[in-house]
Design a protein that fits this description.
The chain is α/β, with parallel strands linked by helices and 236 residues long. The protein contains 10 helices and 9 strands. The chain folds into 2 domains: 148 residues, TPP-binding domain (Rossmann fold, 3-Layer(aba) Sandwich); 77 residues, SIR2/SIRT2 'Small Domain' (2-Layer Sandwich). Strands 3-2-1-7-8-9 form a 6-stranded parallel β-sheet, sandwiched between helices. Strands 5-4-6 form a 3-stranded antiparallel β-sheet, with helices on one face. Helix 7 links the parallel strand 2 and strand 3.
């Protein structure tokens, strides 16, 4: 099956990739769900909401600072670097990610669509003004007086419309679509491989386990992204 994936990639001119938490987990970034997701006895679902920020903006800000520190110490792994090499080969290449850590960009990928935002960007909770810069211990305020929040999509919030629209568009144009390190249950990201398949793409899943997408893909490679992606790229 590995040889077939390499063959398809070699013949393709339009390649789209969807990545999830699995690829970042191999850089030492926890998924923030389950046991390793607990922080001061809080679950992510209790903190990553607009309601939680309204209730206690400092608490939510501290949690994101904790996450940023973990991400700051992490480095792009061999799977990230393999995707950079893959991007160089195609006139049409897009990397759609559910991750907010920015590791794909740090590795060197250019055409990245961030469905869930980016933890290194911030904007005002009230007026929407964007902010960048150093992370402060205290939750900062905007010049309008509102609190500044992390630039990620919280539970109950819509995905950025322009990014989602572009993700649908490029998925429908893909000749080969790679699904890497995602469970295939979080919508609307989980629908993107199916959109690609409906429009004629050959869909490949790279994951250590079966997922909700497994019955629908054309090829499943069992293993981690770090194990498989460098081998795929090296042999292509």
């Amino acid at each position: 099956m590995m040889e077939e994936v390499r063959k398809r990639l070699k013949e393709a001119k339009k390649v789209v990739v969807l990545t999830g938490a699995g690829i970042s987990q191999e850089s030492g970034i926890p998924t923030f769900r389950g046991r390793d997701g607990l922080w001061k006895n809080y679950k992510p679902e209790e903190l990553a909401t607009p309601e939680a920020f309204r209730r206690n903006p400092q608490l939510v800000w501290e949690w994101y600072n904790w996450r940023r520190e973990i991400i700051r110490k992490a480095e792009p792994n061999p799977a990230h670097l393999a995707l950079v090499e893959l991007e160089k080969r195609y006139p049409f290449f897009y990397l759609i990610t559910q991750n907010v850590d920015g590791l794909h960009q740090r590795a060197g990928n250019k055409n990245v669509l961030e469905l869930h935002g980016n933890i290194w960007r911030n904007f005002c909770f009230e007026c929407g003004k964007e902010y960048r810069g150093e992370i402060t211990p205290q939750v900062p305020r905007c010049e309008c007086g509102g609190y500044i929040r992390p630039g990620v999509v919280w539970f109950g919030e819509p995905l950025p419309a322009d990014v989602l629209r572009k993700a649908w568009e490029v998925s429908a144009q893909a000749e080969v679509f790679l699904v890497i390190g995602t469970s295939g249950v979080v919508q609307p990201a989980a629908s993107l491989p199916l959109v690609a398949k409906e429009h004629g793409a050959w869909v490949v899943e790279i994951n250590p386990q079966e997922t909700a997408l497994t019955p629908w893909v054309d090829a499943s490679l069992r293993g981690t992204a770090c194990q498989l992606l460098p081998e795929i790229v090296k042999g292509g």
